[in-house]
């Protein structure tokens, strides 16, 4: 039951992140894209930039500081590398972003969160 609630909250967080990104001019290319090495929550494009977005939802804003770490970012980066060729053409910028969400707070968008 706890896992189902967490899954439902995560999906709501992904929808909130999608709406936020759309309002900022991003087009959604894929949602919950599964790859052999992991899942990418959102893949979005704006102009010549493709962002592979990890979304983290926490019920308490204080918990957001621990929501993302190098291990999770490495997994998203590996997943992005596995499918980037399907979404990006030459000359486009690729990056991994993170959106942190909690009730009562505006989304916190970390641009280019993964830099190996």
Automatic annotation (TrEMBL):
Gene3D superfamilies associated with the record: 3.40.1350.10
GO molecular function, one term: nucleic acid binding
Family: Belongs to the UPF0102 family.
Protein name: UPF0102 protein N0B51_04155
Species of the source: Tsuneonella litorea
